[in-house]
Amino acid sequence: MKAIILVGGYGTRLRPLTLTVPKPMVEFGNQPMITHQIEALAEAGVTDIVLAVSYKAEVMENLLEEYKARFGINITCSKEEEPLGTAGPLKLAESVLKKDDSPFFVLNSDVICDYPFKDLIKFHQKHGAAGTIVATKVDEPSKYGVIVHDRDTPDLIDRFVEKPVEFVGNRINAGMYILNPSVLDLIELKPTSIEKETFPILVEQKQLYSFDLEGYWMDVGQPKDFLTGTCLFLSSLSRRKPEKMCNEKFVHQGNVLVDPSAKIHPNALIGPNVVIGPGVVIGDGARIQRSVILANSQVKDHAWVKSTIVGWNSTIGKWARTEGCTVLGDDVEIKNEIYVNGAKVLPHKSIGVNVEKESIIM
Ligand code: GDD
Ligand code: MG
């Protein structure tokens, strides 16, 4: 089987992290976001994966060899001269996606869940139509593509509305599809939106079904959702693979994932819902909850870090306090005793005065 992962897009909503690293490469649960997807695709029997890239292609290419060796699959980059949206890249990769008659998976690179690929194949084969969209239910459907079902045929989609202004329903497109190669004949090689241009045609032809996802789901393409998604991912991981979770003395209430190379003072208090990356150093009495600390950062003694994403190579000073969905870019310093609430701090900045309200520090 084959798959294409849409890894283009500028990831602007996940700045300042995406100023340094493309969105699919930002570490989620201590692995680049797309690694989770590639792992799940390989497990479901996918042998050919195309990464559809529209910018920063070099960064992705460096990883291809690693993925080939690690997962034993063919993996290639398909580079766009100009961003081709969410459908154009499928046409560009037609030679791979049409190399046999089997259907192919399409994934948005920023969605996390317990990927249901094997069940999805079975479901798709059973209804026999051209496409299946994975669906989930959310409280705020206006940020997503909304699916409305046909009254008479179970799971057949009757309407697909991308980012609706008015409420149409709360079952949404989870950003994962399985499509027959014939769908490629509906797409032209130009910037095209699969949600706005291709799905409506398939709906009209009664060729698009939806498959309800079980368990958690999140689009982690913005900081608030990245943190919520991290909590959901950690709860799921501690149920599925409890041996991966940290249970040292400094863990408080569980769901803590720590890279083995991190150094954590035994008097720190970490958790619940914390991810600590490689090379991180956590000081005496530091308190961390509901946060992600990316590679090679430091949280000094007695700092309190809550609902924060600490970008790579950053430092949070002694007795400093961060919260309110604060995001630090690469190489940021928060000085001793400083309070930061809801700030997005661009790379290479040093913060020496309190930031009390949501703001962007450039
Ligand atoms: N190759 C390539 N080229 N990829 C692109 C391009 C492009 O020009 N533009 C966007 N992408 C990729 C993004 O990297 C992401 O993986 C995916 O396409 C979707 O783009 P987002 O920008 O994340 O879209 P969204 O989150 O607003 O909405 C989409 O995802 C929702 C689920 O999370 C839509 O598919 C919605 O219908 C869906 O509900
Ligand atoms: Mg998204």
The main sheet orders its strands as: 5-4-1-6-11-8-12
| CATH H-level superfamily of the largest domain | Spore Coat Polysaccharide Biosynthesis Protein SpsA, Chain A
CATH class of the largest domain: Alpha Beta
Give me the count of strands: 31
Over the alpha carbons, how many angstroms does the gyration radius reach? 21 Å
Strand % is: 25-35%
Envelope shape: elongated
Terminal-residue CA separation = 45 Å
Largest sheet: 7 strands, mixed
CATH topology type of the largest domain: Spore Coat Polysaccharide Biosynthesis Protein SpsA, Chain A
The total number of structural domains is: 2
* Global structural class: alpha/beta
Task: Briefly say what this structure is.
The chain has about 350 residues and is an alpha/beta fold. It contains 7 helices and 31 strands.
Describe, in plain words, how this protein is organized in 3D.
This protein is of the alpha/beta class. The protein is 21% helix and 31% strand. The chain folds into two domains: 218 residues, Spore Coat Polysaccharide Biosynthesis Protein SpsA, Chain A; 117 residues, UDP N-Acetylglucosamine Acyltransferase, domain 1 (3 Solenoid). It contains seven helices and 31 strands. It has a seven-stranded mixed beta sheet. A seven-stranded parallel beta sheet has the order 14-17-20-23-26-29-31, covered by helices on one side. Helix 2 links the parallel strand 4 and strand 5. The radius of gyration is 21 Å and the shape is elongated. The termini are far apart. The structure holds guanosine-5'-diphosphate-alpha-D-mannose and magnesium ion.
